[in-house]
Design goal:
With 138 residues, the protein is mostly helical. Helix content is 62%, strand content 12%.
Length: 138
C-alpha cells in the first residue's frame, strides 16, 4: 500500500495581496463581528468558533496548514492537519481566557491593519487569532 503526501499550497502572493486590499480587510471585520455575535448567543458557539478559526483564510486567503494524503490503491484521500491541544484543555482555556482576550486581540489587530505602518503587525495578529481564542495550532 503506497501513500502519496501532498502539502497544502498557498495562492501566489500577488493574488493574496490584492484580495487583502480590496476584499479581505473589510470582510474580516464583518466576519469577526458575526462570529462574536454567534459566540455571544451561546447556541451559535460552534459556528462562531469555526468562523474565528477561519479568520486567516478570510483575511489573506491563507491556506490551512497540513497536507493531503492519498492512498494509491483505493484512490481515497484525506486531509491531515496539525495536531491540536487536547480538546478539554482548549475548552477550559476558552472559558477562562480565550473568549474575552481574543475579542480585544482582534480589535487591536484590525486597527493595526487600518494603518500602513502597523499593517504587518495587524496581519500577524489576525493570523494568530485562532490560537488566541481556542489554542488552535496551525
Amino acid at each position: 500500500m503506497s501513500k502519496i503526501r501532498q502539502e497544502a499550497r498557498q495562492l501566489p502572493f500577488i493574488v493574496r495581496a490584492i484580495w487583502f486590499i480590496f476584499v479581505g480587510w473589510e470582510l474580516t471585520a464583518v466576519w469577526i463581528a458575526i462570529a462574536w455575535f454567534l459566540n455571544a448567543i451561546i447556541i451559535g458557539l460552534p459556528l462562531g468558533l469555526w468562523m474565528i478559526d477561519r479568520v486567516p483564510q478570510v483575511l489573506t486567503l491563507r491556506a490551512r496548514s497540513g497536507a493531503w494524503e492519498y492512498d494509491s490503491e483505493t484512490g481515497h484521500g484525506r486531509f491531515q492537519g496539525v495536531r491540536q491541544v487536547f480538546w478539554p484543555a482548549r475548552a477550559v482555556y476558552f472559558v477562562l481566557f480565550g473568549w474575552w482576550f481574543s475579542l480585544i486581540w482582534a480589535a487591536i489587530g484590525w486597527f493595526f491593519c487600518a494603518t500602513i505602518i502597523g499593517l504587518p503587525i495587524g496581519i500577524w495578529m489576525l493570523h494568530r487569532l485562532p490560537a488566541v481564542t481556542t489554542l488552535q495550532r496551525g
